[in-house]
Queue: 2 jobs
Job 1
Amino acid sequence: MKLYGFFRSSAAFRVRIALNLKKLDYDAAFIHLRRGEQSGPEFRGVNPQGLVPALEIDGERLIQSLPIIEYLDERHPEPPLLPPDAAGRARVRALAAIVACDIHPLNNLRVLRYLHRELGHDEAALGRWYNHWIAEGFAAFEALVAADKRTGAFCHGDEPGLADIALAPQIVNAERYALDLAPYPTITRIFKTCMQLDAFAAAHPERQPDREA
Amino acid sequence: MKLYGFFRSSAAFRVRIALNLKKLDYDAAFIHLRRGEQSGPEFRGVNPQGLVPALEIDGERLIQSLPIIEYLDERHPEPPLLPPDAAGRARVRALAAIVACDIHPLNNLRVLRYLHRELGHDEAALGRWYNHWIAEGFAAFEALVAADKRTGAFCHGDEPGLADIALAPQIVNAERYALDLAPYPTITRIFKTCMQLDAFAAAHPERQPDREA
């Protein structure tokens, strides 16, 4: 099994957490995003989208973090990353999608580069953009988990799952850009609980072999 | 069953197609996005994210189009919208995610408004932005379906599924902004096949009761 990733990629971070929770060993291939390795012909042969993560497993080459994690959950059911009931699964997938569809893609490196290179915005404008979309998404995420009795120690009950896997890397990103997390007490509480688990802590960007200052 | 949507929302369009494929009747609530109804307190009570679609079903209130469609597929398995094998499901979910994570959220109304109101960009710059992200995503989508024997009349085999449901509304958007579709012969061929089906055609924005010129 081979995971193509980058220490700073929060989508790769999600897959690292899932692999750790499932106790699956993997080889790591490091695709240096700032040097543009994801756009070269070699990696485009792995993933035509030129994005990490990609996972080679069972003779398949999978892309897109949430579909990869659903695959891992189907093939390696323990511990489950989705609830047993359809309504619970819809809730957890929706929470994950708030991050994976409506926060993270807006703040991806390729988008920040377009804002800078094509549209001429400076670091300050990029920082406001970055935190604006996190704040929008976190406000909804917080409202949904704070108001729902299905929330427990984690986003859904007392075991970590797909929603926590999406949330934790996004909070790490928010911390990097110094977003004020005070308006989001429930999700920061859940984040702290997540990061006490080895599966989450060992997946942190700062603990990856390709990390940089 | 009640679907909160807007004729022009391509995420709502996806759910309309899935409901039609499953032959499920629903009441429609129209949330006028350009008038800002999605941001008012009434709709925020339905979906704290302030985005359509939302679906009330089985006493639950679901948000996020792909999780809604997965719920419909689990509760109403015929016709299936995902393949029977884990690798096929991962492929179809990844194709859907290319649209739902990496194209559509970048071109959503709230993002175009931020680019215009906060960053001062004009219609021409917005149009370039819009088509840039579609072209990036379509190039990958095209490469993935053109090179894969699992592609059939539709994205995966000869029956429509989740990847087609994500693709078709995005092509309708691309046509609106006059993106040149010539570089994407496979996905435009699949799109034409989709739109010959009543389930897709009846879900088109121009056929919704709340459509506007």
Note: Chain B touches chain A through 48 residues (CB under 8 Å).
Job 2
Amino acid sequence: MTDSDFTIYQPQPLLIVISGPSGVGKDSVVQALKRRGLPFHFVVTATTRPPRPGEVNGQDYFFVSKEEFARLIDQGELIEYAIVYNDYKGIPKQQVREALASGKDVIMRLDVQGAATVRKLAPEAVLIFLTTQDEQELIARLNKRKSDSAEDLSLRIATARQELKRAAEFDYGVINADGRLDEAVEAVIAIIRAEHHRIHPRRVSL
Amino acid sequence: MTDSDFTIYQPQPLLIVISGPSGVGKDSVVQALKRRGLPFHFVVTATTRPPRPGEVNGQDYFFVSKEEFARLIDQGELIEYAIVYNDYKGIPKQQVREALASGKDVIMRLDVQGAATVRKLAPEAVLIFLTTQDEQELIARLNKRKSDSAEDLSLRIATARQELKRAAEFDYGVINADGRLDEAVEAVIAIIRAEHHRIHPRRVSL
């Protein structure tokens, strides 16, 4: 009997995607996870827009030139990217690789389409689908976003309706009900903890 | 969008098996889980031996006649059974069915062979493999069992060696290191919690 028999699992670092329709509270959950001070790497997005006052490169965003961004696209070095108001935003693979190589779990906040992209790129990622308690709660939250016109709102609701149907593509579901953010965060932490105890670990390569 | 879209997972009751070689602390973990007062059903074993003073039927054991035990065997109503010092011991399926039907998670402590039997009977069971930190810890624990002769001890070590190789048949691995029982129990609770968040739940039928 060698000690290697006792290594019943290799604590592989995980790639965790927090996703769900608009309004379910993805940012709230990720911010609350950050406040816990756990040793996660939270993914930083690259953007071609200039920094706003107070924004720190590598912390709020990676601020890159359009040339640099074009190079990342060409080399397939972005997990996903999009044009937002004439500026590019995307997630560089390299930081995820580096964080995983250092043994850290990587946490990524993505919309439902982005989560599906990660599933294809890294099938071993842990996909968590956030949702609200019920329809009323989701609509109330979408309503609160004051920047939306009535037209935007009905578009967002229609999109959420379609996205809810895609929950089956995910591994885990977590309800982020009004006033119960802590419960949702505890569920996410339990999921991450349990995944580290899998006998057959998920080995992510990007 | 109906509210049923928000039912992204059905919180199915789980069948959880706590297993591992002799000496890893299966009983300690199960006793500690009991003390947490969580709404689990802990499986009670049926036995043909007479109750000892203070033992309560249905709590310590189900005390049944040999005729009744024979009937349970004949009808395939035992998850597993064994002869221990001329008395029969086994786990009746019916209590597991009833507990699951009432919505309770069922926790079962089994040796490695018993866990393999459950995997065949109920592939959707959650199998947790307990182990020690290393070989030294396991041998020290087996050594402490004063009832064992030196011959028994070497047999137990040989058995443990074989059983450790079967960890790959399990879903999760948990280290129950000396003085760190709470950590093992927390891991088991996180695993159970996470399993309840699976989008595609394990539906156990027995």
Note: Chain A is about 40% helix and 20% strand.
